[in-house]
Amino acid sequence: MEYKEKKKEQGIEDALEYAKHIINAVHIPLIILDESLKVVLISQSFCQVFKVRPEDTEGRFIYELGNRQWDIPKLRELLEDILPKTTSFDNFEVTHDFPDIGKRIMLVNARRIYLETNRTKLILLAIEDITEPKNILDALYEKIKQLEQSLKMEEGKGHTIVELKRKVEELQRRIIRK
Fold first, then answer.
1. What is the pTM of this model?
2. Fewest CB within a 10 Å sphere: which of 3, 11, 108, 150?
3. In terms of residue numbers, what domain contains 141?
4. Are residues 96 and 38 in the same domain?
5. CA angle 56, 116, 16 (to 5 degrees)
6. Do 93 and 36 share a structural domain?
7. What is the pLDDT of residues 121-136, one digit of tens each?
8. Cα–Cα distance for residue pair 123/111, rounded to 1 Å
């Protein structure tokens, strides 16, 4: 019986090492939580974007990370209310002002994962920082408003603004789908 347990344990360690290589190959910040919402693994891109170190995060409750900077009401809603009722969610927008990196607008995707081998429940979070594209879009919308106001008096030019606005909205949809 001891041999089987050791073999099973080794299989889990191998799987974790394998997963670590995969998530480090992805450019979107990833974080894997256990069912009690403690950090099991974070990607290198997560470390770079949010300026954290694996040794300061792994094994800690997600809401305690970085002097509790991840204790975000919208994130709590996702992890405690929405995710338990479904197996996944996509493109949930969360805005938060982090002490070290400033205000960030993020799209959060989550998947619940069940590992049959050792009956482990995990949560995979992909967190895409869309702050820059969102700020660009906001600036474009502001410019459009200014153009609409300045061209209001000129007949026949309104269609140009409407077309520009349509293109910006299409760009926004493409960024969010990305």
1. 0.70
2. 3
3. 134-177
4. yes
5. 30
6. yes
7. 788 899 998 998 888 8
8. 6
